[in-house]
Amino acid sequence: MAASYDLIVRNGTVIDGTGSAPRHADVAVQDGRIAAIGRIDGSGREEIDARGLTVTPGFVDVHTHYDGQVTWDDRFSPSSGHGVTTVLMGNCGVGFAPCRPQDRDTLMNVMEGVEDIPELVMREGVPWNWQSFPDYLEALSKRQCDIDFATQVPHAPLRVFVMGRRGVDREPATAADMAEMARLVEEGLDAGALGFSTSRSLFHRTPDGALTPTITAGEEELAAIARGMRRAGKGVIQLLDDFQDTTAEGATEFAMLRRLVELSGRPLSFTLLDISLYPGRWQTLLREIERAHRDGLTIRGQVAARPVAVLYGLELSFHPFSTCPSYREVDGLPLEAKLAKLRDPAMKAKLLQEQPSYRNPQMLAFMRSVANMFVLGDPPDYTPPADRRLDARAAKLGITPLELAYDLLVSGDGRTILFHPGANYTDCSDANMASMLRHDHTVMALGDGGAHYGLICDASYTTHALTYWTRDRKGERWPLPWAIQQLTDVPARAVGLGDRGRLQMGYKADINVIDLDRLKVSAPHPVHNLPGGGRRLEQKAEGYRATIVGGEVTYRDGEFTGAKPGRLVRGAR
């Protein structure tokens, strides 16, 4: 008698996530797991005809910031619209737990500055029905969502929870402080956190320009936490670091990372970027990673699949004129009224002459670097040629790049988005990014979903990775099985989620059915669907015929089915 299954995906080209060659096969699902792969004679309670389509594991994004959104929304948009079936939150040392009631404003202030989540959205949306980190996980365990989610213990709220105002002011931790932080990290890991995260980046500041609580934390503090992780015997370490001390000869800061891995016995990953201001730094860091692996230390670089870029526009969080004094006259007006005032030649002349003012000097300098910006366009072009950069276009017109930026912003319907690649696109080339992505000790990541609501929209990187690197790139293109492996098995294993990321017997039935010929990403656009009417960037995709989480179809042709099988993932698998 032929077996029956909950679901069968038939006649597809299966790419299983291991890097193996594609094969024509059926995939059967029973009780949320892969039950059979091959020619399946049985029947399914539900069947999907995948003839002419590609069947892959669900994608795993290990760098997101859905820590707040998960508490008010049952959909992990935009990630879940791009084939992602599991996300890891709590990155870069920021989050909402642990937290005492008197410290909520502090954490919201940090999240607003670091991750561009408006205070009103957090005040309206975050329920704060927790204090300890285990309390937070307990609250999350009651959520039913479109995809699975896991989290980490973030350093900033941990430091504030233990040290109060001293932590906010970045005072050195006492021995008692460090012991308590280590204990709470152990507690969080035992409750189900996948790791611990921190930030050491000067870009991470509150809206008033203050550095975040973790940036100047000493090595002794991090070492105490590392020893706590060794006692727990579980978890990964994630951090963002500027590596300012890095030269061609080596990296002092990286040496500290090595010591943390030695002390903890746990894997570590960090954001790896090619920044034009620091030529060759990425190569030095990759050499350090290689040396660490030769010495038995697991350190990985997290690399974005496309240029790391900020988006600017009249409807977004910032643009080159948004911090000019005269812009306050129009800020907050409806778009049409704003355009009418900005098109006044007198207003234009005034804004072109004014000096902007903003309390985050790094961000201010970045948003005024208009020469290096492009128009993103629709469909979006994330690797535009140098002659489309604003400095090149302005030179042909005989005007300054700043004036061209102004004219572009107020042109048409006022919805032009300026695209500013700050990393991974040095000299308008993707060559360095390709070298980082193809390295054996890096992981494709950095979707940043759930944060930077009006500034960045990189959660669609999974779709871009498949369309650009395997199909549309001019020059070398990568094998599709390799790219699928980088989106599935590699990130899953990097954070200890060994029960997913592959289409193999017994693995979790997270599956994508994709029409690769039709696969494309649309231009990002603002929507106002956050708590309190807050704005965020949404970005859609075409070509995902079905996304399946734990055996349940959550999306068909990009439309949400209403199924919410996604749950909190506690601990490594």
TrEMBL record:
CDD domains for the chain: D-aminoacylase
Domain Amidohydrolase: 46-555
Protein source organism: Reyranella humidisoli
Domain of life, source organism: Bacteria
InterPro entries named in the record: Amidohydro_3, Metallo-dep_Hydrolases_sf
Spans traversing the lipid bilayer: none
Full protein name: Amidohydrolase family protein
